[in-house]
Design goal:
11 helices; seven-stranded antiparallel beta sheet; 3 domains; seven-stranded mixed beta sheet; alpha/beta
């Protein structure tokens, strides 16, 4: 998957604004005697500033247009006074520079006001990195509504399939996914899903891996993996998953995409279970097969599956015009055991996924018993 546009949220993704917002919230809470507990109950801190303050005032029974405007004006003043407290997130300078050099269209899509966004862009000299900017002032409905991202798609001239979003909040994630975008969610290393994992258009990954993921997504070409068993047909090579000469087989081909191995496959009606629906056994085989190729390419050995826990989430269609994507990567190593995640996706939606435990043979055994002598890329 090579994308043409990256749409970034601002606070918590591009910049660390927590110190600034903590100061602003503390000040306006004290000055206006605001009870902000409703924001904690409803994830309101991730709404636009105007929507969050409106929610607080309505919850307290104190709402008026005049008071709302007064508080928002005070917030803008405080934002300007304390803007030096905003800093770039670690690794973001290198990430933005890499995307800029590649000519990737980058957009900033924020629930903050235009004035606040402008101050950040100017304060940190970021304006050259964002060809498109969408703020809370540019839309009728902010996140979690899809409108901010739909507006960014319109302004950039791209399609949802051409771009990905980078978000860190439930409201932002919902907005991106509802707009049809794949959403990358950088998380701390101790997050419970800290391994790269795709689910329903959302890809969780460690924050320190964001640069590498965007590097891979915007690379001009993935590298095709060379089948190390080609030429061994006379010795019995006829794998159902990857042998190109097996007339009943899947004939899968594989590509290296950063930490992932990926395969694109057209499921014909010959592989259906229910009418025009890919058989669950074939989905299992696709994920089992790609896991083996992760071991071959990333660990340069062979082995066998010892456990495979599968979740079937959505039906996978079959037919001449259907194209699906199968991905896998190593989540964890435990001595000779690799724990992998694999998934089958259709139109960027995870339809089935598996956690696979793979026993890895010593390289000498892989060579002597499985004719494996290394796995390279073109």
């Amino acid at each position: 998957m090579t994308v043409k546009g990256i749409f970034f949220d601002m606070d918590g993704v591009v910049v660390d604004s927590d110190p600034l917002w903590n100061t602003i919230i503390r000040t306006v809470r004290e000055e206006y005697a605001l009870d902000m507990s409703c924001l904690e109950r409803s994830d309101g801190y991730n709404l636009s500033t105007g929507e969050a303050i409106r929610l607080v005032l309505e919850d307290m029974g104190r709402y008026s247009d005049g008071l709302l405007e007064e508080i928002l004006h005070r917030i803008d003043i405080l934002y300007s006074l304390h803007r030096d407290m905003v800093s770039l997130m670690p690794g973001m300078a290198e990430t933005l520079e890499m995307l800029h050099e590649r000519g990737v269209h980058t957009a900033l899509v924020s629930n903050s006001s235009c004035q606040q966004v402008d101050m950040v862009l100017d304060r940190l000299c970021l304006r050259k990195y964002f060809q498109t900017v969408v703020t809370a002032d540019d839309v009728t409905c902010g996140k979690p509504d899809a409108e901010p991202y739909l507006r960014a798609i319109e302004l950039t001239g791209l399609t949802a399939a051409d771009a990905v979003a980078v978000e860190d909040s439930p409201t932002g994630i919902a907005a991106a996914v509802n707009a049809g975008l794949l959403c990358l969610v950088p998380v701390p290393a101790d997050f419970k899903s800290c391994g790269t994992k795709v689910h329903d258009g959302i890809c969780y990954l460690r924050r320190e891996n964001l640069y590498g993921k965007l590097d891979n997504l915007t690379s001009k070409q993935m590298k095709k993996i060379i089948n190390p068993w080609l030429g061994l047909e006379d010795q019995g090579y006829n794998c159902f998953g990857c042998a190109p000469s097996n007339k009943y087989g899947l004939k899968m081909e594989f590509y290296e995409d950063g930490d992932d191995v990926v395969s694109y496959w057209n499921p014909s009606d010959d592989y259906q279970g229910w009418l025009h629906t890919l058989h669950g056994g074939i989905q299992s085989t696709l994920m089992d097969e790609i896991a083996m190729w992760v071991i071959a390419r990333k660990l340069q050995t062979s082995g066998m599956t010892t456990r495979m826990d599968i979740k079937f989430r959505k039906p996978v269609p079959t037919g001449p015009d259907v194209r699906i994507e199968i991905r896998s990567h190593i989540m964890e190593m435990k001595r000779n055991f690799a724990i992998l995640h694999a998934c089958v996706m259709h139109e960027s939606t995870v339809c089935s996924e598996a956690e696979i435990t793979y026993f890895c043979f010593p390289k000498e055994k892989a060579a002597s018993d499985f004719y494996f002598n290394g796995c390279d890329v073109e």
